Amino acid sequence: MEVVFLGTGTSQGIPVIGCGCDVCLSDDEKDKRLRTSVLVKTEGINILIDASPDFRRQMLDNNEDNVDVILLTHEHNDHIIGMDDIRPINFKYEKNIPVYGMARVLDQVKQKFHYAFSETSYPGAPKLNCVEIEAGKSFWLHKNVEVIPLLVFHAGLPILGFRIQNFVYITDASHLPEETIEAVAGAGVLILNALQRTKHFSHFNLEEALEMIRLLHPNRALLTHMSHHMGKHHVLLADLPANVEPAFDKMRLKI
After folding, report:
1. What is the CATH superfamily name and number for domain 2-254?
2. How does pLDDT run across 84-128, given as a tens digit for each residue?
């Protein structure tokens, strides 16, 4: 399995428009973060987890040209609005793309991209097939690729994380229920959100993310969905335990 970090930033990305902080003005490429998304490549399948507003640029920047499946954590714009740019993949590979998400999330997809689901949709519309999933009910994308949707809370909003084989991806979380902790504990690689160093109402901050990593005890953990308030990449890296590191855009992780 290979995980490509398409984006590791929060909803505004880094640099933030109009911001003059040290992070936004940094020359270090690891301090430049597009909106959060990963591409998981396993068993000949390219699995996109969330389609950010930066999806087109992310695919071009990483020399990727194919997606077989989209998994959606939730319906916020920074996680779904890039799906319109799936069209070149529809055209090149002559296929529709299945989109897996909770019923509420798929309803939002059908509203925001209503032109893709109209009975009289025009030929240039994205070709998406919605597939409803539920937390705790696993499904198979391939005989060797089982996906386990994990219940996560983003403030009071129930959303999904995903476990694929020995890899776990959780973003936008502020709380993990006990059943998710049990399903994730001891994973080989955990990707977990950490927005900033100070407390936030709907995301883990750094202290909370590190406490959750200690509880879940993965072999390796990487932080994502970081804002400019987290500070520079190299400073954050120096502050973290040996088995934890900040992910960065264009990072490729072999599992």
Report:
1. Ribonuclease Z/Hydroxyacylglutathione hydrolase-like (3.60.15.10)
2. 999 999 999 999 999 999 999 999 999 999 999 988 877 889 999
